[in-house]
Amino acid sequence: MTTATAPRWAAALPSALLASAAAGLALALGAAHPLAPGIALAAVALAGALAARWSGATWFVLPAVMPWIALNPWTGWTMVDEFDLLVLALLAGAHAARAAARWRGVTPPLPRREFGVVALLAVLLGFGVVRGWLDAGGGAPSAFDGYTDATNALRAGKSLAFALALWPLLPREAAALAAAARRFALGMALGVAVVGVAALGERIAYPGLLEFSGPYRITARFWEMHVGGAAIDAYLALATPVVAWAVWGARTPVRFAVAALLAVLTVHAALVTFARGVLLAVGLPLLGLGLAWLWQRLGPRAAVPARAGEAASVSSRQCGAPWPRGAVVGFGLLAVVVLVGAFAIEGYAGLGWVWLAASALLLLAWRRVRALGWRAPAGALLALALATEVVAVVAGGSFLVERLAQTTLDAGGRIAHWRHGLGVLDSPRDVALGIGLGRLPARYAAADVQREFSGAIRWVATPQGLRPRLEGPAVVDEIGGLYALTQRVPHVPGARYVVSLQARSQALRAGAAEAPAARLWLRVCERHLLYDARCQEALVTLPPPEAVATLDVPLDGPAFAAQPWWPARRALLSIAVYDAGTAALLERVQLRAGGGADLLHHGDFARGAARWFPSAQAWYVPWHIDNLYLELLIERGAAGALALLALAGLALQRLLDAARHGDTLAPFLAAALAGVALVGAVSSVLDVPRVALVAMLVAMLGLRRGAAKPGTPR
């Protein structure tokens, strides 16, 4: 009996351990949730039960909720978010079910080759986390730590850790894997719909829907951009090819209408990021898909050998939609003419003429278009809508045009930024093994005072408990006041805000002979994340360090107007040290409007950093290297970078191979990977764990797609 049961225990043990660890972490984080621990724990239990009951739910839920589930600007968390709770809960439920299946002998083990890859990546990950943790000096981890603390090593490594834990859950049988990939794509489509609606609401509420001349760049629900970065850029590069798949595969007018609306929202979001990297990362993969389709339809026909269990035919009807060749080519050329004209003709009047000419051609050909069936006019209208968006943004006094014109000028600054980042590699060991996960911001800022952080917020122990110590930059006075402690507060129309606080100046460096008096910049602004609209503000000077100031500070500025239910402007209290070389310790803060009650949560800091969120403005240089490949090299070393890039390249190759054999989703997933690779040439990606995890899941689907066996049991 012992001989028979031992192998079953051994087979089930890894998944059982993973399930236990994930459940324990999820419950611990849920119980510590700053807003609603009871709801968080109930959601963890529900997600775990869902994953245990329906194994395929994980692949839909993760991409569907990723863009909107994090509430960090309200909770104050910086190292974790609600998406982490969801991933841990899904891992707990799915691995518990896998452990039971392994015990029964239903589920096969991970193939040896894949097990070797997972083990190698796990070793490299563990080494990078330990190296980063020790380099930062260790300490007790906290969900409220900053990007220079040791906990940042865990934050930087969690996306790969989650991906490795999810890897064994991918189906091995080809049909089940295809179903999982389809669920993943549908989840991505739902997620990008949320981002599109959020971007639309943000534009309407703050700069205005048709205001394209100002430097307002959307952030949607990507809270990680509170210190800048390209979270939304990388996400849109991943998601746009999936939107193209949804349009391409729509077989009924209703589905096409939904997919077309999603395409309009997605293109709008991509345009109003005003990011040149997004235009490149979205446009080139889609252009590649179009050229591949044209080659398939118009180029030489060649028989493609089918894999076992797959159909050899790759007709246009199997590829998602029976589009007439002439319609696709004609409307594609129409879109190209508009886009090329929009960027080639000087003057906004010329752009308008290009658009009007394209619209006239479409109207003149409308009767012939209608004869081709419902898809042709629907596709023509979608092409015209997308072209209208492009022309409106480019011709509307656009900030995008200014950024495109500055590309060559900005390239010099970007290259200098990269060189400075490479300068943190102090030895051949650093080049080979990296400086440690999460250590790039601290090392970069410390290497040159002219590239320092714009400030810092440290939670220090006092006799009264934890209190926030706000610090300005050490040297560069021009970036003072750009790093603040913030809290979301009620938007009170027509009222004047008054801040009451107890605070005192402190020396910026320990052992300083004397500490200059600190000035605090107090503001209540209409702000989503990075950009201010109306503000009420005041600048107050604290007394010398020996004295504690008790101040009631009326804020000056225009009163806020009443807001609609949606989209509404939010109000944000921010407190920052205004001058370089100074620091202040806050003892208590209160905020009132029109003589009413205190509007703040935990203004006495009785719960430490809960509900208080750090946020930067305007100066983001030290936090990001703005290059995926340098990010890999600097933090993970040549060994880690080569391993991850080799696997990504293999995943891309397998997706392209699957596309040649008739897999209708594979070319779009390949385009998503290519988009991330392109945006990574000018932006960081892995410093946003949520987006990095989704990119890794796309790569995992590609890697497993090449190894899937028809008829193999899961």
Describe this structure in words.
The protein has 714 residues and is α+β, with helices and mostly antiparallel strands. Among the domains are: 1-107, no CATH class; 455-618, Sandwich (Jelly Rolls). Helices cover 54% and strands 11% of the residues. It has 22 helices and ten strands. Helix 1 packs antiparallel against helix 5 and helix 21 (666-679) crosses helix 22 (689-707). 48% of the residues are buried.
List keywords for this structure.
single chain, 714 residues, alpha+beta, Jelly Rolls, 5-stranded antiparallel β-sheet, 22 helices, 10 strands, disordered N terminus
Structure summarized in a few sentences:
With 714 residues, the chain is of the alpha+beta class.
Strand order of the largest sheet: 1-2-9-4-7
Amino- and carboxy-terminal Cα gap: 27 Å
Q: Which CATH-level-2 architecture of the domain at 455-618? A: Sandwich
Total number of helical segments?
Answer: 22
> In CATH, what is the homologous superfamily of the domain at 455-618?
Galactose-binding domain-like
How is the biggest beta sheet arranged? Answer: 5 strands, antiparallel
Q: How would you sum up the global shape?
A: globular
The helical percent reads 40-55%
By CATH, the topology of the domain at 455-618 is Jelly Rolls
Number of E-type strands: 10
> Which stretches are poorly predicted, pLDDT < 50 over at least 5 residues?
1-6, 302-327, 333-348
Average pLDDT, to the nearest integer?
Answer: 88
CATH hierarchy, class of the domain at 455-618: Mainly Beta
| Backbone CA Rg | 27 Å
